[in-house]
Each structure stands twice: as structure tokens, then as C-alpha cells.
Amino acid sequence: MNIAVKLDLILAAFWALLVIIAQCFGTPGNIIYFIIVGAIGSVILIHCLVTQKVVKPMHNFVDIADKVVDGDVREGLDDLKICDDELLQVSVTKLFGSMIESRVAVEDYMSKIGEMNKELNEKVDSLSALYYASQAMGGSLSIDNLARNFITIFSERVGIEGAGLMLYNDKNDMVTIKDLIGISPELFGKFKFYSDNHILTNVFCEAGYWQLSEEDGAKLVAEFDCDDVKRLKLIFPMRIKDHLVGLLLLAEKKNGDSYTKADFELYKAIVGLASTSINNAMLFEKSEETKIDLDHKVFNLMTLQQSSKMLSSTLNLEELINISIDMFLETVWSNKGILMLTSDETNDLEVKAFKGITQEEIDELKKNPAESWVMTTIQKEKKPIFAQEINGKSYAQSYTTASNKELPFAVYVPMIKEEELYGIVKVGPKINGEAFTDNDLEFFETLASQAVIAFENARLYSLAITDSITKLYVHRYFQFRLEEEVARSKRYNSTISLLMCDIDHFKNVNDTYGHQQGDCILREVSRIIRKNVRNTDIPCRYGGEEFAVILPETTQSDAKIVAERIRRDVANFEFPSIIPGQPPVRCSISIGVAGFPLNADNKDQLIQKSDAALYKAKDSGRNKVVLCGIEE
User: Fold this and answer.
1) Most exposed residue of 28, 155, 191, 230, measured as fewest CB within 10 angstroms of its CB?
2) Which residue has the higher pLDDT, 618 or 20?
3) Beta pairing partners, 179
């Protein structure tokens, strides 16, 4: 029942009561009096009812509403509960329930907005830090400046209590402190380690960083004898692909908060920027520091290019050996050296060329304990040995255990072929007194490789054109060279002489003493022929026991002198018997001589004429020299 109905009923009851009272008195005057009294009473009654049922509840509603609006929801509800107006309670409860639900929804929405704002602020801070990092790490090529800017980002921008940068040095394989902020300088001297340390193993884990526990910190303190190491909480690797650049060291946050996943992602991004910048700076600084070395390398490359041309200009092994030792010495300004090659027959190292040293001094080297140690070491390890310091490091090993003497040479460079020792080059000190450098080492190794290839090509070519028994040129090479020389003689109007030689009664030697004895005689005769001709002459094995010698720029009379020396030396030589205790074997040789263009017009005629002179010598009693066109 609402207030209006209640008020109507109360007024009706009040007026009914007045009518009854008026009838009881029964006087008109009293009726007027009672009407006045009833009217006044009605006003008073209405006032009281409105005050009690309308005004007071409205005041309560306003008070409760103010408390709810001010946030005192619980106190407003308590006031509502003690309110004695049921209708007000129901109305206000519905109204305030709706308001409370709306407020809760608003508060939840505001809470989400606050969290979003917080995340947004964190991302803005992260982007700001990354932008600052990109600016700070991209404007310099100085390692010192980059290192300071890098750790300053974490100290000032990110809010880390202390930060440090360690860099890896590939020369000494050490990781050392480059710069620190907020961490004791004691770490500069104590916190350093090699690349095989367990710290790098922990850092290069799947997570991409090492978060140190208290136990880890205690172990590092014990390992490096430095209390401030325990302040380190995070270590991030700095690398470019598989190349280690350095490490980032971080202490706790200034606000004491724990590190979050977002922090790790931000730090990784900054470390990535810094790794590239610092690595570029290190490369730039290294290039500046080694500018002279680079110039030297350019010079070496030009020298190697020239040497490659020179080494490919000939297939004569002796010429190649002389070219090689000159290049080894001249390029590094040395005037003393020896080139040794491994013998095919004995597998021992033999001296093939030397400069700035006498044969007597070479013989004395065999008695030098230090030299013997070096040769044994190179044969075993197949690595260069340096007696001088190179960039502060001594490459010479402790040979003093064998001798107190200094090494006779400054550098010993092995020549390697298919992982086997092919030879050794010994180089004396530089004439300007400078120490050998890494560039010199690279040059020596490259030149040695080129020389080995050239030597091997020359050796294979020599095997292809020389006879295995006599070591003289084979018949095919003889034909090729004779044609060349005839053509050259025609072009320059010069003379050529050809000797055709045949060992007398060689078949009887084979039949009597055996073919092995025959091979021995062939080797000795070829040695006698080589001894009596010039380097420009071309001694060949024509076939069987026959030999041919091409003598460029030689007249027939001069050729006869050479032929007589060969004939005489063969006749006087005592060929050793292959059977122990048996007397030496005696042999003779017949030689025919013909000349171009005196006796022939072409190569084939020259061979025919000299061969005819040879058979004339045999027919006239053997052990003779016969010139074509001259009667004996």
C-alpha cells in the first residue's frame, strides 16, 4: 500500500471521528468548532505523515546515496539495513544494487585500463631504450665509446644497479673486462678467463642467457677470488653467428624488482644491436692497427703472383729450385738460406740450393744439436719453427734442452705434399734486424705450397721425358727437341751437331754378366756423357745401348772434341761388377758425328748422317769417333 492510500484512509478515519464527536454535542456552534479543529488537525496530521513517510526517507536516501557515491558502499548498505522504511529499503536496494553493479563494472574496466596503460608504458620505455641504444651504438667506431654507451644504457635507461662489458680476444683466447659501471673495479684484474671456461657453457644455453643463483655467485667468488662477482645476476652472450664478441654483465635492478620475461627480451634486443656495433668497431680498429700489415700482404700477393709466373715459366727442376730460394730470401730481405728436398731414393733430406752460406758451414750444421732438434721436430710435427719473436710470442720451442746455442736460422718452413714432408726451407734473419711477422709466415706457407706444386710438376714432367735407368731424355723427347733446334738453327743461321753413340759389344756383356750388369753399365755411361756435356746440350737414350747428344751452337770440330772426351772416359772407366769379389768390367763406345747444315738439310737427314758415321766407326774397329764426310 502506497503513501497516498494510507493518507486517504487516515484522513477519512480522522474526519469520521470528528463527525461522531460533533453529533454527540449536537450544537451548531460546536460543529463549526470541530470543523476548524478537524481542519487544523488534518494539516498537522498530513504534515506529520509527509515528514515521517516522505521527507525523512528522502533524507536517508540522500545520505545513503552520498556515501555510495563517495565510495563508502558498505557503510551505505549498513544504513539501508537499519532503515525502518520497508518501501525505501526495497527501492533503494534495487537502485543501489544497480549502481553498485555499474560501479564494480567501472572499477573492473578502470583496472584493465590501468594494466593496459602499464604494459603500454613498459613497451614505450622499451622502445625508447631500443631507440636510444640504436643511436648510442651507431654513431661511433671507437670501442671505448661504444662500451661506455652500452653499459650506460642499462645503468641509466633500464635502471640496473651495475653493468659491465667483457670482450673476447682471439689472439690470446681470453675474455676480459672492457668497462664497468656500478661494479667494483676489482673485476678488471681478477674476472677473466679462457674461452673454454664453464661460464661460456652456461651462457650459451637454450635460454640465451645465464641467470645466476646465490650458489652460482658463491662458486664464482671462490673461483676468481673476488667478492664483487656475487653481485652479478645476469650474463648475456654477445655474438655474431658463431663468433663470440663478448659478454654483458648485469647486477640487480635499482628498484629491487625481479627480472621479467619482458626484461630478458629487451636486453637481448639491445645486446644484439651492441654486438654488431662493437664487432664492427673491433674490425675497424684491427684494420687500422694492421694497415702496415695489409700493405705488406699486398706486396706479398704481388710477389706471389710474380713468383707464380716464374715458377710456371719452366719445368726444369734445378731452375725452379734456384728461383724458389731467391724468392724466399728476397721478399723478406734475408741474405742467407737453404732449400732442402726429400730424396726419392733414400727418403732423406738433401740440400738442393743455398745462399749466403758455404758448403763447409752446411756440413757443420749436421753436428749442431740445436739444428738436429729442429730438423727432427719439423719432420715429426710438420709445422714452421721461428727462432725470433713474432708479435710478442716465441714460436721457437724449448730447443735449449738439446743445446745452449742459438738456432742457426731464423725461420724453418716445412714444404708439405699430401700431409707428408716434401722439403724444408731455412731462412736467415732479416738484414734490417726486424722480427718476422704473421704476414711473413703466411707468405712462406703460400710460397712453399706453390713451390711444391711447381717442383712436383717438374718431377712428373722429368719422369715423362727421361729414361728410368739412365736418367737421360727418352727417344720421343729427342725427336721433339732435335726438330726444335733444327728450326731454330735455320731461323738464326746457326749450327748444330749430333752425336750418335753405341756401346761396343753390349750384347756380349748382357749374355756374359746378365742384364743387371748391363743396366749398371748403361747408368755409368750416361753419367759419363752428362759429365762431358753442357747444361744447354741435350743427352738422350736413343734406344737399347744407343745414345744421342744434341749439341746446339756447336761446330763439327768442337763436337769431335766432346765425343773424344766421352770415348776416352768410357774406355778408361772400370765398371764395377754387381757380383762381390769379381773384377771390374771394361767397355768401349763408338761415336758418329754429323752437323747441320753442313751434312744435312733437315732433322731426318741429320739423324741418318750421324748414324751412318756411327756404323762406319764400328766397321772400322770400334772405340772410335767418326765425323760425317771425313774419311778416316
Assistant:
1) 28
2) 618
3) 165
Give Dmax over CA atoms of the chain in angstroms.
208
First to last CA, the chain: 172
At residue 400 the predicted structure's pLDDT band, cuts being 50, 70 and 90, is: very low
Tell me the pTM.
0.51
Distance CA 632, CA 627 (A): 9
C-alpha 276/C-alpha 250 separation (Å) is 19
Closest CA to 484 of 554, 538, 531: 538
The answer to whether the beta carbons of residues 394 and 427 sit under 8 Å apart is: no
Q: Report the C-alpha gap between 619 and 621 in whole angstroms.
A: 6
The answer to whether 497 touches 556, Cβ cutoff 8 Å, is: yes
Please report which confidence band the pLDDT of residue 284 belongs to, taking 50, 70 and 90 as the band edges: confident
Query: Angle of helix 438-465 relative to helix 317-331, nearest 10 degrees?
Result: 170
Q: Supply 295's cell numbers.
A: 700493405
The answer to whether 498 and 607 are in contact (CB under 8 A) is yes
Answer for the pair 458, 317: CB distance below 8 angstroms, yes or no: yes
DSSP string, 189-257: HH--EETTSHHHHHHSSTTSSEE--HHHHHHHHHHHT-GGGGG--EEEEEEETTEEEEEEEE--BTT-P
Which residue in 572, 561, 590, 566 sits closest to 500, CA to CA?
A: 590
CB-neighbour burial class of residue 350 (10 A; exposed 0-12, middle 13-18, buried 19+)? exposed
> CB-side exposure of 319: number of CA atoms within 13 Å?
13
Residues whose CB falls within 8 Å of the CB of residue 344, separated by 6 or more in sequence, listed in order: none
Distance of CA 512 to the CA centre of its chain: 69
pLDDT digits (tens, 9 = 90+) for 480-495: 999 999 999 999 999 9
What one-letter code names the amino acid at 187?
L
* Ramachandran sector of residue 629 (left: φ over 0; alpha: ψ -120 to 50; beta: rest): left
Q: Give the integer Cα–Cα distance in Å for 617 and 591.
A: 7
Contact 42, 10 (CB under 8 A): no
Query: In what helix (H) or strand (E) does residue 390 lie, and over which residues does it extend?
Result: strand 389-390
Residues 153-202: tens digit of each pLDDT: 888 878 888 999 999 988 888 999 999 998 888 888 889 999 889 898 88
